[in-house]
Amino acid sequence: MIESVIEVTVNGKPRQVAAKSTLPSLLEELQIDRRLIAIAYNGDVIPRDRYDEVVLKDGDTLEVVRMVGGG
């Protein structure tokens, strides 16, 4: 059986993921620690405690911003 894929854009780059992928599964695939980032999903910043609710759809756009310490 062929698994269907969708295309999303992550930080300006197209990326194919399995249909019905979740935001946490994408972050895991990209090896990104969700505690150290902020995400704009289709232009809206989403609270970290809502990441588990996001199911990716074809054409979605994500901007992942990593927190940087310094002083």
How would you describe what is shown here?
- β1 (5-10) and β2 (13-18) form a beta hairpin.
- The chain has a 5-stranded mixed β-sheet with strand order 2-1-5-3-4, with no helix packed on it.
- The relative contact order is 0.28.
- It has 71 residues and is mainly beta.
- The protein contains 1 helix and 5 strands; from the N terminus they run ββαβββ.
- The protein has a single domain, classed as Ubiquitin-like (UB roll) (Roll), CATH 3.10.20.
- The N and C termini lie far apart (53 Å).
Architecture blueprint of SSEs:
Layout: E1 5-10, E2 13-18, H1 23-29, E3 37-41, E4 44-46, E5 61-66
Parallel strand pairs: 1-5
Antiparallel strand pairs: 1-2, 3-4, 3-5
